[in-house]
């Protein structure tokens, strides 16, 4: 029930924000009868309706069916642990975005591979360093040399 | 018979076979890299075709397309990352099989079904080009809108346990599809002043973010890496019993893929989702879908490979490119002075026969090349978890950047991954959202074009015969899915009560 109510609340916030942005879309002289805001407004209303229905179902269902509460596996990690670990991977991604324009594709990829392997429990070692360099070289060969993609920063293109 | 002899002669006297094999190999590589779309893969070989004789050049491009459409399913099955839009439907059961240690079986089914789908599509291309071309021409904006509705009707059965959450996810997808310039007036919507968003958000970015990046976030908190002793590290093709079981979904996939392929703009994504849905509807093992069903891999794989062949119908018959890939093929034809249309078949019959022969070689070589490279891919994904996750992240960064050469896209994918994590936590399914993103623009643009044509009268959707037929079918699908849900709900409520007695 808590999960569905949380879901409903998030969907309501999204629909309200989206509706507010959709209402502000400018109208062009070229616009048709529906207009650029027509369907977005409809989608916002539709999402809000679904969110309310979900909330109603979450509240009424246990009363009507005496259904069991959401079950969580005993060995499942806690929500805060899940979010912290996910934030760690996200941070490595943000680090890539910040460093790649300065250090270039090849060097940043070495750092990303090494950081991810360490984050997932691999110990710092010569093997890890060698794997990171070799992996970055393979990606460079594939994307830059073979496919001709101009990757960002020095050593990219 | 003359055409067959000509095909054999062309195979023996021109570099048609190396062109087909080379094209398929290159295509598989490109398709298997998330972000490198079939059209990019084809564009990269286009310059090579300048110096080639026309027949082999066209075969090289078409074979690249065939290989790329297949290649998208490899990362979909192995690392939960669809390499192409059309491979999104394969993720569901393909990755579930991989997680159960049945990755070799899933890859075998996808390869076997892909080759069958490709051969079926090729046969339809050869035999039915003329009538299929008429179907393509009959499609109006009303029919395209109705096609979008038909595609969305699949949401009812892709929603998992909660229909409301499935519908909400579908609407979220439709909302994402409205980002960018308005299809009629060009007014920017939800772009927040970012020029990168003016062209909208490519569906592949949403798919990679939702499926792959959110999976990496999730795996970060997995307490242990489930290593099983019985994990398959070899490709396993279906045995006799499974082949018989797969026949129905493959037939559905081939038929739907053939029809969708000829419609410019429809593409393999709608075909693969609809095939998945129909395979589930007609399956005797419905309960296995979403949990590693072989039929759930076979149907979409057959469909998107059938599309790869029949998508050539509007290009060859009228010069109408229905997708970016078809536009590049059209470019290849024009570079060599070949003008698509009915006269192409009369004046350059040898080129057309050569193309058919080349596509046949491409389908066969798809099987052989797949058998060679898939065990290597399977071995790669069974490396230690820490390295595997690191390399998947690096692949995502490299592939996503390659789409538009944009770091903004990479950041966007990371954010979509965060959204995907929250969707997992609150139980919102991904596939309806993906379907909404893929179909949103097609639906909105054609809905509004139709209303411009009719002066705002919605009756136009009922006056167009194809639109009416598609809308009726969509309505039947929705009613059928709802009835099935109601039946299951009543049955599940009665079962515990009977057990208590």
Overall description:
- The complex is a heterodimer of chains A (157) and B (501).
- By secondary structure, chain A is mainly α.
- Chain A is 71% helix and 0% strand.
- The termini of chain A are far apart.
- Chain B is an all-alpha fold and 501 residues long.
- Chain B has one domain.
- The longest helix of chain B has 36 residues, at 465-500.
- Chain B starts with a helix and ends with a helix.
- At the A-B interface, helix 1, helix 2, helix 3, helix 4 and helix 5 of A face helix 10, helix 11, helix 19, helix 20 and helix 21 of B.
Task: Categorize the overall geometry of chain B.
Answer: globular
Biggest β-sheet of chain A: count, sense, barrel? Answer: none
Low-confidence stretches of chain A: none
What fraction strand of chain A?
under 5%
**Poorly predicted runs of chain B:** none
Task: Write down the Rg of chain A.
Answer: 24 Å
Helix content of chain A: over 70%
Using the CA coordinates, give the radius of gyration of chain B.
22 Å
Quaternary assembly = heterodimer
Estimated helix fraction of chain B: over 70%
Q: How far is the first residue's CA from the last residue's CA of chain A?
A: 53 Å
The pair of chains with the biggest contact is: A-B, 80 and 63 residues
Q: Which keywords apply here?
A:
heterodimer, A: about 160 residues, 2 domains, about 70% helix, about 0% strand, B: mainly alpha, about 75% helix, globular
At a glance:
Chain A is mainly α and 157 residues long. Helices cover 71% and strands 0% of the residues of chain A. Chain A contains 5 helices and no strands.
Give the helices and strands, then pairings.
The complex is a heterodimer of chains A (157) and B (501).
Chain A: H1 2-23, H2 38-65, H3 79-103, H4 105-119, H5 126-146
Helix pairs in contact in A: 1-2, 3-4, 4-5
Chain B: H1 2-13, H2 16-32, H3 38-45, H4 54-71, H5 73-79, H6 88-99, H7 103-137, H8 141-152, H9 155-158, H10 163-177, E1 180-181, E2 188-189, H11 203-219, H12 240-261, H13 267-281, H14 294-310, H15 312-318, H16 324-335, H17 342-347, H18 349-380, H19 385-404, H20 407-426, H21 430-454, H22 460-463, H23 465-500
Antiparallel strand pairs in B: 1-2
């Amino acid at each position: 029930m808590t999960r569905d109510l949380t879901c409903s609340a998030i969907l309501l916030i999204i629909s309200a924000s989206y509706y507010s942005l959709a209402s502000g879309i400018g109208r062009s002289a070229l616009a048709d009868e529906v207009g650029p805001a027509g369907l977005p407004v409809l989608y916002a209303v539709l999402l809000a309706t679904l969110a309310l229905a979900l909330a109603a179902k979450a509240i009424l269902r246990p009363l009507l069916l005496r259904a069991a509460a959401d079950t969580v596996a005993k060995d499942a990690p806690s929500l805060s642990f899940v979010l912290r670990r996910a934030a760690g991977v996200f941070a490595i991604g943000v680090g890539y975005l910040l460093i790649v324009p300065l250090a270039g594709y090849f060097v940043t990829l070495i750092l990303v591979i090494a950081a991810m392997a360490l984050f997932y429990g691999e110990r710092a070692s010569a093997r890890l360093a060698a794997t990171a360099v070799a992996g970055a070289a393979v990606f460079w060969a594939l994307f830059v040399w073979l496919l001709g993609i101009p990757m960002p920063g020095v050593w990219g293109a | 018979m003359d055409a067959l002899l000509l095909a054999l002669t062309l195979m023996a006297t021109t570099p048609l076979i190396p062109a087909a094999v080379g094209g398929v190999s290159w295509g598989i590589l490109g398709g298997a890299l998330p972000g490198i779309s079939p059209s990019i893969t084809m564009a990269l070989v286009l310059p090579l075709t300048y110096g080639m004789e026309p027949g082999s050049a066209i075969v090289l491009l078409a074979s690249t397309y065939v290989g790329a459409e297949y290649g998208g399913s490899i990362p979909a099955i192995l690392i939960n990352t669809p390499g192409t839009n059309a491979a999104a439907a394969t993720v569901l059961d393909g990755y579930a099989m991989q997680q159960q240690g049945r990755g070799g079986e899933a890859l075998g089914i996808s390869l076997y079904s892909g080759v069958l789908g490709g051969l079926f599509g090729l046969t339809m291309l050869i035999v039915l080009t003329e009538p299929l071309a008429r179907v393509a021409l009959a499609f109006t904006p009303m029919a395209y809108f109705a096609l979008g509705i038909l595609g969305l009707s699949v949401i009812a059965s892709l929603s998992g346990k909660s229909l409301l959450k499935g519908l909400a996810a579908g609407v979220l997808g439709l909302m994402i599809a409205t980002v960018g310039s308005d299809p009629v007036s060009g007014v920017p919507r939800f772009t927040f002043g970012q020029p990168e968003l003016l062209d909208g958000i490519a569906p592949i970015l949403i798919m990679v973010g939702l499926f792959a990046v959110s999976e990496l976030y999730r795996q970060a908190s997995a307490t242990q890496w489930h290593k099983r002793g019985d994990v398959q590290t070899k490709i396993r093709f279906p045995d006799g019993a499974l082949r018989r079981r797969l026949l129905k979904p493959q037939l559905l996939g081939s038929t739907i893929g053939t029809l969708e392929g000829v419609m410019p703009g429809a593409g393999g994504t709608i075909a693969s989702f609809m095939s998945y849905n129909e395979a589930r509807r007609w399956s005797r093992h419905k309960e296995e879908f979403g949990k590693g069903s072989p039929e759930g891999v076979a149907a979409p794989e057959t469909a998107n490979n059938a599309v790869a062949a029949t998508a050539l119908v509007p290009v060859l018959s009228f010069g109408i490119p229905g997708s970016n890939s078809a536009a590049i093929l059209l470019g290849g034809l024009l570079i060599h002075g070949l003008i698509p249309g009915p006269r192409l078949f009369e004046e350059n019959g040898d080129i057309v026969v050569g193309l058919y022969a080349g596509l046949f070689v491409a389908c066969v070589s798809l099987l052989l090349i797949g058998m060679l490279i898939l065990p290597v891919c399977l071995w790669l994904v069974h490396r230690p978890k820490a390295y595997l996750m690191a390399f998947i992240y690096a692949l995502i960064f490299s592939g996503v950047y390659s789409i538009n050469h944009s770091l903004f896209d990479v950041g966007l994918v990371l954010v979509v991954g965060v959204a995907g994590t929250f969707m997992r936590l609150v139980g919102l399914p991904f596939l309806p959202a993906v379907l909404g993103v893929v179909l949103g623009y097609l639906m909105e643009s054609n809905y509004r074009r139709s209303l411009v044509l009719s002066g705002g009268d919605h009756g136009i959707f009922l006056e167009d015969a194809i639109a009416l037929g598609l809308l009726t079918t969509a309505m039947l699908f929705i009613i059928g899915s709802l009835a099935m849900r109601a039946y299951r709900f009543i049955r599940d409520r009665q079962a515990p009560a009977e057990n208590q007695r």
